[in-house]
Structure prediction request, 111 residues.
Amino acid sequence: MIAAVGSLVLATSLMAVGCGGGDDDSSVPSDPVLAQGRDVYRSQCAQCHGSRGGGGSGVKLAGVVAATYPNIEDHVAVIRDGKGSGRMPAFGDRLSPEEIEAVARWEREGF
Prediction:
């Protein structure tokens, strides 16, 4: 009986790990702009900045981007125009102004 309970606990733990629960937050934000920003972030930004903004080949954003750019317009300008000789590419030709604003809000409020 103890072995059966132990097996059940192990199986349940493995299922929880396999089902995500880590970086894949599948809940949709109630604010439609944040929902759009999350989707844009996932498709355009996560590959460099990490799925939760923790960094990678791009800098960490989660918890620091609003302090780095207190004025959201400065943050929007970096996304639109790029920065640092190609290190941060410009997205102004790939994303609409609304998408850029939405992803900036997501990076500031969504992680």
